[in-house]
Every structure is written in structure tokens, then in C-alpha cells.
Amino acid sequence: MNLCFLPNDGRKYIIIKLTIIKGLVEYFKSCLFVYHDIPTFATFAANEEGNLEYLTYIEDHLKHELPLYPIFFFDRFIYRAYYGFFGYGRCIECNLLFKDKNLWCKYCHSKRFQDNFSKWDSGDETINDIIRKTQLNAEKTCQVIEWIPYDDFENIEHFARGGFSRVYRANWIHGQILSRNYRDHDYIRNKNMLVALKELNNSSNINDNFLNELRLNIQFNNNPYTLKVLGISRNPSTKNYIIVTNYMKKGSLLNMLSRKKITNWLEKLYLIQKISEGIKLIHDAGFLHCDIHSGNIFYENVSEIYISDFGISIPAYKVTSDTKINGVLAYTAPEIVNGDGTRTIKSDIYSLGILYWEIITQKMAFASERNDELFLSFEICKGLRPKFEERTPEHLKKLIESCWDANPQKRPTIEYINFVIGSMIFYLMNTREDLAEEFRLKSQAEEENEVNDQSQYSKVQEEENEINQSKDSLLTSKLSFKEALFSTYRNSYDEYTLESQLSKYNSEEWSNNSNDSCMIDINELEKY
């Protein structure tokens, strides 16, 4: 961020943010003892560039290595509180209020985009119309998509293939629009950025499947848990259209699970929570994903999870009894496999249950049965489910089993899943240190008895090469960290107990979603 283009309000925000974060870093540095050698603010120059350098170090470096949750919690709090009160300033051209921190003026930008409509053409009027509408209606930079000429990409390399597409990585020379340079009256762009090019097979003639995926991806650009669409392009050789998205260096969750052994239960729960939150936002928008599996979820770190591939997603109100089996069979609900039911939100919940099992075991569901889909179909309908390992905590096991219940009506809602997982995390980290210790011991036992169960993943991922290995876990189960981290806030949560919060879900309002199979048993929690 270059402060010379920020209004005075932006400068004030940076100063306030810098002051508070500086104090928090110094405080937690003393609490965390020797976790990391955190540089003090004095190591940076005491000027505007030094301030930005310090903030950049904290935000872009430490957040991937040090679990300083309070720092980033306060960062978000300061951001919302300050700008909620003072606003973002005004556009120097039209004097209208900015909508976000990137100083985006909808009126000025839409006029600029409209003046450039005649300078590009996708070759299809429907696509032209979609791009133009997003540009005219964009209120934030993340809502803008562009027509990108194919010759604006360089270093194009194929790295993956899906059922309906081929995926390439490339450098986008001009790059994504970040903000407006009011000095030069031009855009500030992320030049030469690495992007993914998803070339859809047989899309030279526009069809409903392509338009459906394009519209859904654009609609979910505001969802913080979905892969962002940056633009549309076209391969001049095949004439196929291309959806351009951010490139995820770490690859899919499937790839991560095959390469990195997660022995920390807290990280597993947090990963499940982030995925559940992303699916909830999709359901809240009135859509079903219909193809949830670990290959369609991208993992940068435990705080950055992105859901992708909306090619077969459908509006919840359009499901019919003849909805076909799409996606990966192992994740498909039995009512869809046997053709007796329709795709509903509960079908996505079933897929989530299989995904949760893969996260906690780091094994592929039905690995030995996948080669015989007919046999697997019969077995799923007869009640075959993945087997839990003995070390799986009973309350987590019950929740996952409820997700893949053969009766869709007995599966929990996504809201209930989020609540239960969130309660487990909070209860683990804050109110029960003996529970945290038990989880820590289980993690140690897993690490000591670790066996190589990853070969089955490697076979599936032969085409996903050259993907960087995941960084070390962001989370740690060391009690010394928990004591330092939460002692500050413990008094604020004295009235919060798992029993009191669960009582909210025992009411008649939640009776349909809180059946015996998925409710947390407090006695079981005492065991773990």
C-alpha cells in the first residue's frame, strides 16, 4: 500500500493501527517467550516507509508462522470500528464516498470501464454482457472481472486436468486491478501475477454449463472462502473459453493431506470449521455445491481455505428427482446414488461428513473400493461408511456419523455443525486445560505411531506436480501458549460454558437439527 494515494483518513487509520499492533506484538512477545525472534518496531525506520515495512512484516510474515490471533482480531476490530465511524474518505474527482479501503469509486470506475467497452470483444455477446455488467456494478475491486487477451499471458504451463477442463498456470503481464492511481489517472495493478487458467473443454460454442459456472463464480467473488474469478480469456488455438482465477501455490486440500501429517487436533478442527463456514455462505446464497471433495478445496494455510469448481452447482429451489450423479462417487449421498431422492442441502452435508473424516484420518475414503464404482454404489446404499480410528474423540465421531446418516432428515444443519465445531475449539483452547492436555497427548501418540498411509493419495495426485509443500502448522497445542494467549480474555468468558451454549440447541426450535446422534455428550467431553 502506498500512502501517498490515501486521503488523510487513511493516514490516520494506519497510525492508529500501527500504534495498537505495535503494543500487542511487544506484549505477546513477552508472553510467548522464545517462539520466534519478533523484531521490535525500533528495528525499522521511524518514518512512513518504516511504518509500512513493519506492518508488512507483521501481516505478511508472522501471520503464517506465529498464531498471534489477538493481533489480527484487533486488526479487524480497528478496521471496522475506525472506518465504520469515519468512513473511507471521498473521491477527489466526484466527491462521493469510497466504499472500501482500496478507495473504489463506483461512479468514476464504471464510467471509465464504459468508455473502454469498444476496445475489447470476447467473441460472444453473452459473455460481453456478463463482463460489462460486473464492471458497471462493481462496488469493490474483488467484484471486477476483465476480458484478458490470451497474449497477455506468458510462461503458460499445464499442471492439472479435470473431468471437464484442463488447468494451466501462467503469469498475467498486466495483472489484477488493485486500486486507482489518482496522481496518474490510471489503475494500480498487480503486474506479472501468477494465475490459474481453467480452459473448459468444448466451450468454443457457448453452452449453459459454461455460463452457469461463470455466473456462479462471479456471484461468489464476495465470499471470502471461494476462489476468485479475475477475468475471462480464450485460447486462440482451441477456441475454448478460459476462466482466470488466483493461483493457489500450495495446491488442493487433497494434495496437502497427502504430503503433510497433521498431528494437532486443534488444527484439524480449525480446518473443518473454515470449510464449514465457506459452505454455509454458499447455502445462504441459495445454492448447493453438489461436488464437495478434497480436490475442489484449495489450501494455502489453515486460515486461507478456498472452495472451487461450481460447474455442477445448482440453485436449491431447482433440484428435481432426476438429478444425475455428478462429482466423486465416494462423496455422493446414498439417496442420490440409488436414485430415490433429490439433491438438497442435506446431500452437501453428507459430502462434508466424508471430507471431515478424510481430514481427521488423512486417508482417502473408500480407497480400496474406488476402482469398482458399481460395487461401491451398492455398498454405500447398504450403509458402508469409512471406519474411524480408535484415537478419534467420541463426540467428534458422533458429529461426523450424523452427517452421513442414511436418512437425510437426521443430518444436522450447517449452522449446527459450525456451532458444534466452534464450541469444541473454544472449549479446548479456553475453558478446559485438562482437555487440551489430553488432545496434546493424543497428538503426540499419533506422531510417535505415525505410519505411512499416504501412498494412495500420491497415486491420485500424479498430475499435481511441482506444488510447494505446506508450511508448518499455524497452530500449536502447547499449553504455555494457550495460557499466555487466553489469560487476558478469560474473565470476559466466565459465563460462557459449553453446557449453557448447548442448552440453546435443546429447545423446540432446534429439535429437528439436534438429534441424539450429533449432540455433544458432556460426559464424553470429560473423557477427552
UniProtKB/TrEMBL annotation:
Spans annotated as Disordered: 444-469
Classification via Pfam families: PK_Tyr_Ser-Thr
GO molecular function, one term: protein serine/threonine kinase activity
Coiled coil residues, start to end: none
Signal peptide: none
InterPro entries: Kinase-like_dom_sf, Prot_kinase_dom, Ser-Thr/Tyr_kinase_cat_dom, Ser/Thr_Kinases-Pseudokinases
Residues annotated as domain Protein kinase: 153-427
PANTHER family: PROTEIN KINASE DOMAIN-CONTAINING PROTEIN, SERINE/THREONINE-PROTEIN KINASE TNNI3K-RELATED
Name listed for the protein in its UniProt record: Kinase-like domain-containing protein
Organism listed in the record: Rhizophagus irregularis (strain DAOM 181602 / DAOM 197198 / MUCL 43194) (Arbuscular mycorrhizal fungus)
